[in-house]
Specification:
Helices cover 69% and strands 0% of the residues. By secondary structure, it is mainly alpha-helical.
């Protein structure tokens, strides 16, 4: 079981760097891991007590953290431009630029499911703007970042970070389709989301083939990198969610026969990929328990536990509703409950690391 790590505070006499000098893009994983709880709570197929309060609370928290990090990240680029350029050119750090668009998309998805209860219809407009910004940034990252990784980086599950955002766009875009004008606007959005789905799935399959080939030759990553083995669950969960959520709303944009075919595709795809997801989840849990016994210490990589698990909870919920399977629906609830527990541990460690400034140090 994960426990709160006890890391020593930096020596009082040590010279400290400015707080924003080493602000890296992987910090946006905090928004991803927090926002997915709001999205997951709002989309749970079972009406549990306190669900709405959890969704609202975590969406507000994720929005606040996104605003704070956006301002801090902009200041980092203005005040420490050379350091920022160094991180952007670093093959090991470049993949994490995929976290920024996914953070924006996650908060935007929460605006549709949760924000409307607080701000009314204006939240849908904000969600659409965030979806557009996140999608443009995500597609850009999927095109620009992989060549940077190939220029000298070591293949690892982190390489999925810049190619997954279009899949998040496909899944979150489904909620916007019913709010668009009937006719061509909805059809264009639906087709665009399926195109994003295909783009991300193709890139993810190719990337994972490269990563698995490397792991087969070099072996598993070190203990401290084991949390990144959860990242593939993100694209698995998001793809299941996208296939079924798009199928659910397709009837508002295409004929009933075409919509029935798309819903059938979602169920078939989701059922098949869910089996792969169960295998990957079991493998990731096994590796994590072993790493915990070998001295796994807290780092920002622990946020890799949160968003992928939340994506699986959302995907299971969407598949459970598409199939009317009570077992799958309650499995999504179990995943969501596990997510809440893990988020509490990771968030507590992060807050302590910020307080002691142990996380505000140069990235290796």
């Amino acid at each position: 079981m994960l426990t709160i790590a006890r890391e020593p505070a930096p020596a009082p006499t040590a010279r400290r760097s400015p707080a924003l000098a080493h602000l890296t893009p992987n910090w946006f994983a905090v928004v991803m891991g927090t926002g997915i709880i709001a999205v997951g709570a709002a989309s749970l197929p079972v009406d549990l007590p306190g669900r709405d309060s959890i969704a609202r609370g975590f969406w507000v928290l994720a929005t606040a953290v996104l605003l704070l990090l956006s301002v801090a990240f902009a200041a980092h680029w203005v005040r420490h431009r050379e350091q920022a350029l160094g991180y952007a050119r670093n093959p090991a750090m470049a993949p994490f630029y995929g976290a920024l668009p996914m953070a924006v998309l996650t908060v935007g998805a929460g605006a549709v499911g949760v924000g409307t209860e607080i701000f009314g219809p204006s939240a849908v407009v904000a969600a659409a703007v965030l979806w557009a910004l996140g999608t443009v940034a995500g597609v850009t990252a999927a095109i620009i970042v992989p060549p940077r990784m190939l220029s000298g980086g070591t293949p690892s599950p982190v390489w999925l970070m810049p190619v997954v955002p279009p899949m998040v766009s496909a899944a979150t875009g489904a909620a916007l389709i019913p709010h668009l004008p009937e006719g061509q606007a909805r059809l264009t959005m639906l087709l665009g989301c399926y195109a994003l789905f295909a783009m991300a799935l193709t890139a993810a399959v190719v990337t994972m083939a490269v990563v698995i080939g490397h792991l087969a030759q070099a072996g598993l990553p070190g203990v401290q990198a084991i949390p990144t083995m959860w990242i593939p669950l993100g694209v698995i969960g998001q793809s299941i969610a996208a296939a079924n959520l798009l199928g659910r709303v397709s009837g508002t944009a295409v004929s009933s026969d075409a919509a029935a075919g798309l819903r059938a595709f979602g169920v078939a795809y989701g059922t098949g990929v869910a089996g792969i997801g169960a295998l990957v989840l079991g493998f990731a849990c096994l590796l994590t328990f072993r790493a915990a016994g070998r001295g796994l210490r807290f780092s920002m990589s622990w946020w890799s536990f949160t968003f992928p698990l939340g994506a699986c909870a959302v995907g299971a919920g969407a598949l459970g509703m598409a199939t009317d399977s009570v077992a799958v629906q309650w499995f999504s609830v179990a995943l969501f409950a596990l997510l809440l527990g893990i988020w509490t541990v990771v968030a507590a460690n992060t807050a302590r690391g910020v307080w002691t400034r142990s996380l505000l140090v140069p990235a290796p």
